[in-house]
Structure formats: structure tokens, C-alpha cells
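Its record is quoted verbatim for completeness.
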Amino acid sequence: MAALERTLVLLKPDAVARGLAGRIIQRFEDAGLKIVGTKMVQMDADLAKKHYFDLEERFGPSVFNVTATFMQSGPVIALVLEGVEAVTTVRRLVGVTFPNQANPGTIRGDFAHTSKAYTEANHTVAANLIHASGNPEEAKYEVELWFPEAELFTYQTVGEKFLF
């Protein structure tokens, strides 16, 4: 049975600096996802370590360091989105990690252009605009890390009358 889920999305410093926040958020709303939490945050080293707690183990210290430094380079916009199978829906809308491999029509495919080869050769981050939770368990951890319960809202959208 399809589940109503919440997931975390971070509009990374490159998305904010390029003025793409509104256009990106519109895509999520167009897909029927509801914003139940939002804020702009300047990520610090502690939050970067908690958010990317397993990145160093999976990909090594250089990947963690480049990513953490990038995420602290400017403000991020944190969103909690809610909807039916929200995690999968958001991942589909965002596209794969490396923008040059992302399909046209996805956020990364339409608005970003860096490649894995470029990032590896230059020891830089993939400027891919967005972080999106990878699975429901990760989403639960990330939503709780970024948003206390008091910052999450319950309300009904006009569209929900037709969906539920």
C-alpha cells in the first residue's frame, strides 16, 4: 500500500546563489507534494557532520571534506515535503547525483551541468543543487535532525481533496 511520507530536501548553496529556489520548489508543488516545513540555514561544521555522518566511511575523508566545506559556503533552504511515496517522488523529480547523467526534465538535468569526471579530476563537489533523502529511514533521520516537531505543520491543500 502506498504510504504518505515526509522527506527532507535541501536546496544547496549553488541553488540559492543562482536564484533557483522558487523554480525548484514549484516543481515539487506541481507534483502534488506539500511543504510542511521550511527554513533558511547557514550550515555549521556540527550540522554537516551529523547530516553527512556516513559520507566519510562510504567515500573517504576527501569527499566528506569537500562536501562539508561546500555545504557551509552559503545558506541552504531546508524543506520537509509530504506526499504519497514522497521519498521516491522527490528522487525521481531531482534526478541522479551527477547532473550530466540526469535526464532532461529532472531538476538536475535541467539546471545543473557538472560531471563525475570533472569533480574527481578537480577534487571539487558536484554542484548538483539539491540534497534529497535516499530512502524512508534516511528521511526520518534527516527530518528529525533539521526540524523539531514544532516547526512542522499539518494542513490541507486544495489539491488533497482530489487525492485523498
Notes: The longest helix spans residues 61-71.
